Amino acid sequence: MEDILEVYSRPYNPKLPVVCMDESSVQLIGEVHEPIPAAPGHPVLMDDEYVRNGVASIFMEVEPLGGKRKVKITEQRTRIDWAHFIKEMLEGRYADAEKVILVMDNLNTHNTASLYTAFPPEEARRLADRLEIHYTPKHGSWLNIAEICYVFPSKRFLSPQYPILQ
What we know:
This protein has 166 residues and is an alpha/beta fold. It has a single domain (2-24, 60-157), classed as Nucleotidyltransferase, domain 5 (2-Layer Sandwich). The protein is built from five helices and five strands. Strands 3-2-1-4-5 form a five-stranded mixed β-sheet, with helices on both faces. A hairpin with a 4-residue loop joins strand 2 and strand 3. It is elongated, with a radius of gyration of 19 Å.
């Protein structure tokens, strides 16, 4: 825990941004029957019956001191999906950073081995060298700011109003 708190206490440096990352799966649920629209004095009426339309994975990246957030929704959550999200982060959003200080939980896909699974060794090494990884402790995922922020986009983008991946 002290390691994560030390990382969060560092002053803002755009060349060494602290970025928190998390991912989660969400069930996509659709309506079996069309809801009855709201009328004066009556709320919208929705049936409890639903159809399950699979799952979606939400990748969340938050730079607390830079005031930035990126959300990516994918159909699955694999080592390769994580590696591509990290590559997009390093080569796109943080292309000018010398190194990205990455805070995340220790899910089995959250490691540099995933980069080697997804990319040729030279490219994986180049990407891995730009990361300074700090893992939240077991049962300490609440220390990850991205996990705290996760609840807002999941409720907004994957509510019952969005029954499929769009």
